[in-house]
């Protein structure tokens, strides 16, 4: 098969358990690009976080961020596709999360908003300390998200709610699912991620392929979790990580090794080299 594009998830896939990219993975991506294959980072993370890793890898690539709500060619700041949440839905979701005592954060393309440093926001805050100013994620601790969205007319691409209580998460998911204007997925066992209706990595990848005139048969998608399933379903060749969720493995054409054992590189070596 003459593959032209590889879409790769980050956490649990390209990144190992230490949030690092192995040398073997780096080499595989470099060789793939030298062979004319477009490598696309496809992540639930905020755009600025994905951009850091794209620069680290030396990839001149569009980035699918926020689970597909924001797609941008970072090297020339060219937004290819976006699908932000409606303000009325954002307010309803935030109200529900606060009434049920949930930690949450949300973001646009550049800014990470939270009411407290906990879970992901705490991790990013500590990560920032090691980075150069231009590579840091802008974390804003806020008091009133409702007022913030009204005053700044923000485009919110994603809300993340986190709790270690699985039953509590299942409950809030059922409550929020009554709103038919939103999409809800998970990327970890302790979270739910909320976007506007129609947002998914698969839909974003489909839009990207139309822009670049690439058929789905020429696409490889590599991922590990529930939010990766739409892009695995879209791609001509779907690769699930050995450490991935069983639902992702069931629909995959190939199950590669784990993220701690160069699973991405091994899949690329088999399919591209």
From TrEMBL:
GO cellular component: cytosol
The UniProt record lists the keyword Hydrolase: yes
Pfam families: Hydrolase_3
GO molecular function: magnesium ion binding; phosphatase activity
Keywords: Hydrolase
Residues making up the signal peptide according to the UniProt record: none
InterPro entries documented for this protein: Cof, HAD-like_sf, HAD-SF_hydro_IIB, HAD_sf
Protein name as it appears in the record: Hydrolase (HAD superfamily)
